[in-house]
Amino acid sequence: MVLENFQRRLRQESQLWRDEGIISASQYEQIANRYQFKNIEAAARDRSKMIAIAIGSILLCLGVITFIIANWQIWAREVKFILMMSLFFSTNIIGFYTWKSAVEGKKPQRSKRLLGEFLLVLSAFILGANIALMAEIFNINGSATELFLAWGFGVLVMAYSLSLNSLGIMAIILIQIGYWVGQGDLSYSNYTNDWSWVRLVLKHMPLLSWLLFVPLAYLCRSRWIFCLAAFAFASSLISNLDPLPLLNLSDVAPWVASFAFALPPALFWSYDDLLFPTINYRLFQPLGRDLALVAFGLVFYVLSFRWQWQAQSYTSSYPLTNNTNLFMSLPIIDLGILSGLAVLQWLFLMRHRSNPPRREVIFTTALITTFIAFIAIVPFWHQAISRIGDLGSFIFNVLLAILSWGLIQEGLKLSDRRAFWGGMLLLTLQIISRMLEYDTDLLFKSLVFVMCGSVLISVGLWFERRLTTATKK
Questions:
Q1: pLDDT in the model for residue 326
Q2: Where is the DUF2157 domain (predicted)?
Q3: Do 199 and 191 contact (CB within 8 A), yes or no?
Q4: Given its phi and psi angles, is residue 36 left (phi above 0), alpha (psi -120 to 50 degrees) or beta?
């Protein structure tokens, strides 16, 4: 679309130059041939056709759905089953061949490809409707968790088959909806069968997220899918291990918090695409390190609050049954595999770094290792050996300040806006959080807000002037 707008604007300007005598007719023809002015109208015509087809397809689908709803109670069970499956397969087949012909054609047609992808996504939605309706037709008792998980895994198979970014994102979102709905159901023990597939999926979601979603990111070459996979892994790991508050000792081992907080940044920072034998390029390694810094910031910020280190009463929401110890130990499988992967990645990182290693690389690696060591050791010491109280809050406030300052320095050194503003906002958030956490009067709060706002404005303007000056040089 941007290229077409450029071509259209260039055609208008070049026609004006030709009419004003700035360029000759032959020069105009050279420009027209170089930028393919003749294809502008053809592209617009194809886009209009695809828009008409898309709108017509939507109206046809709405008409079919309305017809089905109007006669749903009248039809027999077999008719309902055949009709819904026919709708799913017809939409899927038409979308697949439309998308395939646009991708594999001699001249890739963007509008046709988008139409095919839209029909494939529509068929993914129809798949969910089919699962729900078939359960109703055949009187299968199920929960929303089972619906979303089955739907999500079905769309995941479609995403792997077609390597489509949109289907991959949709599959991860559906599975995550099923997971978080299931966490609420699990706390009320809705699944009486301890070995049901839903319970196993919920308990092993961290490992499944890493094993199922990361390879999909490579198939689709999608940074969005990799980010969603990282979020699904880290959030489900924290949720399953439930490490907070730190003095929750009723049914959680003292090493749980160390694994829950240290494993995600350790995996993200040491991640290397070259670990895959068929990958010879680094597609997601920089993104993994950005995610590690985000994970460090979140962990430091959460553990910087004083109340996290104080004793609190806690009652587990999980009912105690004969198999409680078994299911509480199930995450150990995930922790063992993921910890082994983290160790393998760090060994690979140490082996393949520059030789001789640069001073900056050595310092950064040592700093990240120190961060991970503090995250792993301090909560364990507090839970298993001796209460450290306010010292724990002080340690993580210092670590948060070091991380913020390091990001600011990196942004200044590399003229990187993301690093600079990330560090500034993290430092500002730390100052405001400490001010709100402690008992301070309104006058002091007002002073802190005014100072933070003034510093952000002045430093931001200075940084932008600095970037402008460096660009001019």
A1: 41
A2: 16-167
A3: yes
A4: left
